[in-house]
């Protein structure tokens, strides 16, 4: 499946548009999680590579401990004021279970570096999708966005 064969809306409900041919780091995010400070690293990646054919895509999800309970407006305000988020955010979706969004059906089929595929483990799981729309790498939640593994993978995925 190519990324966004199954459409997902932006946080405000409008159609989501990403730069054509961009590499995308898709991350399920939450405002009240112990990993929420990763927003800072995600924004750092966006600022560093955003003009080189890359974007972070934040996907709010409330399936892990009710840690993303806010309305779209509350989520947008939190991200903007708390972390200066400039990357796009989608509508709130489910990433696991019977209500799993089709985007995550495709993403969760991709294995991590240990060969494990399947359900998203927690908030801030990261999927690097190449410019052609296929999943290149999967990083588990505790992998920091600015880790050498993520940065190296992003740099390798940038359109030439």
Topology:
Layout: E1 23-29, H1 38-49, E2 54-60, H2 72-83, H3 102-107, E3 126-129, E4 135-139, H4 148-157
Parallel strand pairs: 1-2
Antiparallel strand pairs: 1-3, 3-4
Describe the structure.
The protein has 160 residues and is an alpha+beta fold. The protein has one domain: Glutaredoxin, CATH 3.40.30. It has four helices and four strands, in the order βαβααββα. It has a four-stranded mixed beta sheet with strand order 2-1-3-4, covered by helices on one side.
| Sheet with the most strands, sense and barrel status | 4 strands, mixed
Q: What is the string of helix and strand elements?
A: EHEHHEEH
Number of helices: 4
Q: State the CATH superfamily name.
A: Glutaredoxin
How many domains? The number is 1
Helix content: 25-40%
Quick summary:
By secondary structure, the chain is of the alpha+beta class. It has helices at residues 38-49, 72-83, 102-107, 148-157; strands spanning 23-29, 54-60, 126-129, 135-139. The model has no long low-confidence stretch (mean pLDDT 94).
């Amino acid at each position: 499946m190519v990324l966004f064969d199954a459409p997902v809306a932006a946080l405000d409900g409008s159609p989501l548009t990403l730069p054509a041919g961009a590499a995308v780091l898709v991350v399920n995010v939450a405002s009240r999680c112990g990993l929420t400070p990763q927003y800072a690293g995600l924004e750092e990646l966006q600022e560093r590579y955003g003009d080189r054919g890359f974007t972070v895509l934040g996907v709010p999800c409330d399936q892990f401990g009710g840690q993303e309970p806010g309305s779209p407006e509350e989520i947008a305000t939190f991200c903007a004021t708390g972390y200066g988020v400039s990357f796009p955010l989608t509508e709130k979706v489910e990433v696991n279970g019977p209500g799993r969004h089709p985007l995550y059906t495709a993403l969760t089929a991709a294995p991590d570096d240990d060969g494990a595929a399947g359900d998203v483990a927690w908030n801030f799981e990261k999927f690097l999708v190449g410019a052609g729309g296929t999943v290149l790498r999967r990083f588990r939640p505790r992998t920091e966005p600015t880790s050498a593994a993520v940065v190296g993978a992003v740099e390798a995925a940038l359109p030439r």
